[in-house]
Amino acid sequence: MPSRQRPVGTVTRGTTNPNRLRRCDRWIAGPQAWRLRRSVTPPVIVDLGYGASPTTAVELHDRLRRVRPDVQVVGIEIDPARVAAGKPLERDGLSFRLGGFEVPLDSGARPSVVRAFNVLRQYPEDEVPAAWALVQERLAPDGLLVDGTCDEIGRRAAWVAVDARGPVSLTLSLRMGGLERPSDVAERLPKSLIHRNVPGEPVHAYLADLDRAWARHAPQSSWGARQRFLATVAEVRERWPLLDGPARWRLGEVTVDWAAVAPREG
């Protein structure tokens, strides 16, 4: 039965738009798809804090059914009115319930992925570790929390992947059309990093290095922004521990080891 404890968290603004989280969904259904396929039972995926509209949970279910037809997507919201708005859209493999970072699921259920987008961005930075820890306790053994932020229509996104042991990676995902420089994503960094984009912090150095390489490879623009981005990231890989390759870079996406960009102590 669902937990009867009071939901942990606060109501957020709830702003959302159709297709806003497509970049993260593509990553979950791509490099992280093994987490769904490995599950012996139907994998549970949580859309935590989906907002005023249940659209992103519906889209997540549609996309992940291509990976595992029996996937169970659960939209969790702390606002009862938002849960009520989702109820008419429930179907086999898609449900909505009241809750927060305690991730209330049926007894024994542990999610393979918890996607929390544009949620912690609205919290104080010092509350992030406790929220992560609470979700981590609920994850399946190979589970992952995806704590991310994106702009209003999903052109720029960034997310931290957190497993049971702690943060694993930072992913940046950018629409290359109209991109002036990779650091345009800076205002969409997750809460754990957004205030650390200052000189002396690793994430600032990482974005600056991407920008410098982007500027050096300006001539590649003759063949399109994708070729310029590929050349940019290939150069940066010589100095930073990237965890992906050209197949993801072609999508405007790049993932770096968290240890390389983690905030400095103090």
Automatic annotation (TrEMBL):
What this protein is called in its record is Methylase
Species source reads: Terrabacter aerolatus
Origin: domain of life: Bacteria
